[in-house]
Every structure is written in C-alpha cells, then in structure tokens.
Amino acid sequence: MEDLKSRILALQKISAGLEPTPSQRDNYFNEVNEYSNSFLNGLSTSGTYSPEKVRHEAFALGKEPKSLEKILRIFEEEVAGKGIKPASGGYMGYIPGGGIYASALGDYLADITNEYAGMSFASPGAVAMEHELLNWMKLLFGFPESAVGNLTSGGSIANLIALTSARDKHKIKGATIEKSVVYLSPQLHHCNLKALRIIGLEDVIIRELKLDEGSRIVASDLKQKLEEDKAAGLNPFLLIASAGTTDTGAMDPLNELGEIAEANKLWYHVDAAYGGFFILSEKRKHLFKGIEKSDSLAVDPHKGLFLPFGLGAVLVKDREAVFHSHHRSANYMQDAVENDSEINPADVSPELTKHFRALRLWLPLQLHGIKPFVACLEEKLLLTAYFRERLEEKGFALGPEPDLSVSYFWWPLSENETNFNKKLLKEIHNDGTVFFSSTNIEGCFVIRMALLAFRTKIEHVDKAVELLDKARIRLLGRL
Q: End-to-end alpha-carbon separation of the chain, Å?
C-alpha cells in the first residue's frame, strides 16, 4: 500500500504542471491578451490573404515544453499569418465567420468552467440557455413552441439533423430509397447532398429544379416534375429550398414552395444557413414570407450574427421524427434520464459530447443587445449595392441584383474572357489586401463577392474596387 501511495504522489507532482498557479494564470492571460490586441489592432493594415506555404515542422511535438511566447510566435507566423484571414474587413470571398470579440469571452468562460451542455442533469443552466436562444429563433422564424431545436457546430450538422428526421418521418429505407425523390436547386449548398449520402440516401432520385434569372427556384417547374414523378409511380418526399444560396445569395420563393410542399405532402426543409438572420432587416423581411411553412430549418449564427466559426442551429417541427433518429439511452446515463424534465440537446443531435456553445451567442446578445447586429446586417446590404455601383462605373459586368449580400461580377471581353478573369482574381490573391472567391454561373467563370464580415466597411469596398481596377489595367496592358 505504501509503495502504491508513493508512486501516486510521485506522479501527482508531475501532473501538477497541468494546473498553473494564480500568478502563472495571470502571466499566461496577459501574454495571450497582448497578442490578441496586437492582432486585432493590426487588422486594418495587415493583408487578408497570403499564399505562403505553411512550415509543417513548426508544429512538430517535442518532449520538452515550450514557452508561451514561443508558442504564440509559431501561431502568429504559421496560422494567423498564412492563408485566408476571415477576421479581416477585407474578407469578401466565402461566407465568413465574423469573430466578434464578445464571443471569444463566452468561449473562454465556457472552456474555463467546462460545462457539459448535452444533458440538463449535468448543467441545467447551459441547457436552459440553449433553449432560450432556440425559443428566440422559433419566434423569429414563426415556428411553434413545440418545435425541437439544437445548437450545432454549423450548417452541415444542422442540415444533417433535419434531413435525417425527414428520412425517418417518411420511412425512406430499403427498397423505397431508389423510388424516392428529392427536389432541390442546383445552387443548393453541397452539405445537403453530403448529408443525404451520409444518412444512406445516396441512391434517391435527385431532381434539380429550373432557376429564374435571379437563380431562384421556378415553382412551376417543381409542380411539373411532381406530376411527372407521381404519374411514373415514384415517391416524392422532400423539397429543399434556400434562404440565401451560397453561390449568388438568392432567396427561393419560400411561400410558393411551401404551399406546393404542403399540397403534395412533402417534407419542406429550408437551408437558411447563410441568409436566415437577414429576416431581422425590415428591408428584406418580406423575402422570408413562407419560411414558417417549412418543416425544418437550418440557420448559422456564425454567419448572419457575426460569431466565430462553430455555431449553427436547427429547428424541426416534428419532435417525434427527431427523437426517432437521434434519441438513445444507455445504462450509465440512467441517473441523468430520471432527473431530466426537459429536452436534452444530446437526444436531438448526433453529438453526445456537447460543447457549451450557447454562451458564445447568449453573452454578446446580452452585452450588446440586438440593435448593433441588425445595423450590421443593414450595412452589408447597402455596401453590396454600393460595391456594385462602383464596379459598374469602372466598366465591370454585373450579375443580377442580389437578394442579400452575395453578388458576382466579371470584366467583359469578346475573347478569352474566362482566362482574363481567372488571371484578374489571381492578381488580387497575390496582392492579398482583399480576398474574393469565384464560381461558375451557367458555365461561365465569375468573381464572387460575399459581404458579411462585420469588420467590412466602406473603406474596404473602396480599396477593393481600386485594386480590381488597377489589376484590370495591368492585365489589359499585357494583352
């Protein structure tokens, strides 16, 4: 016994290194805070993109500990200094995670307290906070109080939960799969198609619907395809619409599609991961009419509410379908089950280990109120219009007027237009001051702008236009 005790105490001395003293915690915090302030203060002058390659050897794990100063230097050089910088106001490429500061404080507290947010028995406060945020979203999107919700890691898991519930509600399994039909836009975010494959529906029939000139689903095409599929003895069961497509920011005709889905007994899912929170804008609220008709909805606070990456949400009206897909008990959890009186997040999601991610949204909403979030959304809509006007003045060709804050443009040429615009985008990437992405619209290469980073201001747009124009002139001079 004494030998065993001495061995335990010897190991205890070594493992004590994982628990810093109060003064060590202060030193660590001060070093990290100093770096954080330096990073944030430098965003206005640093670039948004660097094509420089990462030195993988910098991340190698050694036997001896490193100082925090050295660790932060590696982080600064190899992580924050390379690739895309989504925290920058010059980030106008993909749909960004905004990274507001208050969310970082929420994550810090969540990690310090390490609350397990999967079961109310373990952390009733964390679960209650999640339910409060979900109830707010139910009100926002016109969902009933009885709907089930979950705060997820992002839109991919949110859509996965919804589509799994649709599968089980309509009993799509076995021989039924190959005769079942899903209707969607060719511009639907690919995570939905990935989700269908993950949940065993790779062999369902996918009907891509026609789009109008604004890249929105043509409702009459859905009606026609439904009639044809029913006449052929197929099993239509799922319609997926977008409240803000990733390619062009298009808002599908949600109300009309909802009526068709209801008449044909389809599960109606709306992927609002990008555009959902634009419902807070009085100028865009009308575009969301009919979203309340959906059976399920995915939306990302880490997009439209400017949070750091890692927070999505799903709402589903049919709780029995969600529970059938995701609820499972275990003997070792019997105490928790006996003591829980409300829906546990772990029972309506694939996740059992649940990070206390509610705090990263609840804290900023409490600290700032909703008004700055709404103002930021309105600002992005106006900046998108302003950007398009400035590009048009310079002679760029523009896609149709966008519904939200994603648009596209290109420099028109009679010959080699695609090659020229690819070179133009590469020039911008090599400069690194701002960052755009690209997409293909009806087979044509176009440059895509997505204005949703909360730090993007009018000066960033002006700088981006000037960079584009100068790069265009340089390239034209080489022709």
A: 85
Cα radius of gyration rounded to whole Å, the chain: 25
Residue 296 β-bridge partners: 269, 316
- How buried is 154 (Cβ within 10 angstroms: 0-12 exposed, 13-18 middle, 19+ buried)? buried
pLDDT at 331 over 60: no
Burial of 459 (0-12, 13-18, 19+ CB in 10 A): exposed
List beta partners, residue 84.
49
Res. 333: pLDDT tops 60: no
Distance CA 211, CA 184 (A): 10
Q: How far apart are CA 48 and CA 435, in angstroms?
A: 6
Task: Give the percent of the chain with pLDDT over 70.
Answer: 97
Place of tokens 């310079």: 394
Strand ranges in 411-463 using DSSP code E only, listed in sequence order: 437-441, 444-450
Complete edge-to-edge strand list for the sheet that includes strand 296-299: 148-152, 312-316, 296-299, 267-272, 235-242, 180-184, 205-208
> How many whole angstroms separate alpha carbon 152 and alpha carbon 299?
10
Q: How far apart are CA 236 and CA 247, in angstroms?
A: 26
Report the pLDDT value the prediction gives residue 307, as an integer from 0 to 100.
Answer: 96
Contacts of 182 (CB under 8 A, 6+ apart): 196, 201, 204, 205, 206, 207, 237, 238, 239, 240
Q: How far apart are CA 266 and CA 183, in angstroms?
A: 10
Q: How many other CB atoms sit within 10 Å of the CB of residue 227?
A: 12
- The per-residue pLDDT for 362 is 98
Whole-model pTM: value is: 0.93
Task: Determine how β-strand 83-84 pairs with β-strand 49-50.
Answer: antiparallel
How far apart CA 353 and CA 128 sit, in angstroms, is 17
| Average pLDDT value over all residues in the chain | 94
Neighbours of 475 (CB within 10 A): 16
